[in-house]
Specification:
CATH class: Alpha Beta
Structural class: alpha/beta
Strand order of the largest sheet: 3-2-1-4-5-7-6
Helix content: 40-55%
CATH superfamily: Vaccinia Virus protein VP39
Shape: globular
Order of helices and strands: HHHEHEHEEHEHHHEE
Bound molecules: S-adenosylmethionine
CATH topology: Rossmann fold
Amino acid sequence: MNNHENMYEANYVSRLFDKMSTTYGITNYISSFGFTERWRKQCVKEINWNAELNQGYDLMSGMGESWYLILKEAKVNITGVDISPKMNRKASEKLVKNVGWDVEIREENVLDNTIKSESADFVISTFGLKTFSQNQLKELAKEVVRILRKGGQIAMIEISVPNNFILKTPYMFYLKRIIPIIGRIFQGDSNTYKMLGIYCEKFENCKSFGKELENLGLNIETKSYFFGCATGIVGYK
Ligand SMILES: C[S@@+](CC[C@H](N)C(=O)[O-])C[C@H]1O[C@@H](n2cnc3c(N)ncnc32)[C@H](O)[C@@H]1O
């Protein structure tokens, strides 16, 4: 995992999250001091959960971290889409424990998916954008626009590089140096978690992805959470 040349290849990303799957939940929660959980909640609440929403997608759904938050807001059908078999296995275990949830999982690359056009009343994604290159984000934007029905809503959030210099230096140090140490404590391997900081640094923030969506005709607002430590996009088709 030291050569980053292929860091945006589907196989690489899938294997990375397979590796992380045993420790992702706890490491994520502890290393973010609970912020990721708070940001997930904020992202889910950006959707206007009215009675017209029946079905939608959680892209890069991981272990289904956002599902209980969505289902607290509305009784909807969720399809989780994730490329990592081991993250999906963890997500399936969650479904076994929560029998009433109307959730299905599609194990596929979101850039090469089988989702029906205009089938989504909503599309959500929490912390699933950073592992895409700028070109891949353009493709992802096209997919999101394709699958949203007219009037369908979108809310996405991702860890970002804050603009504020005073915050940027310690935050990036934390992401790139401290989180790998926490990862090593839980997993015995710091390289896997080191990648999260590297992806984040290259991703920067949600602005350019928001612009792509806007250029494709969506109404988009870019959001900043906790001084830009996370950013998001919210909007509709
Ligand atoms: C940082 S995790 C986020 C998981 C979850 N949404 C959360 O809130 O914690 C990113 C997830 O995106 C998935 N992923 C990355 N690239 C993908 C792709 N091209 N297609 C589908 N899933 C992808 C990974 O397997 C991983 O589970």
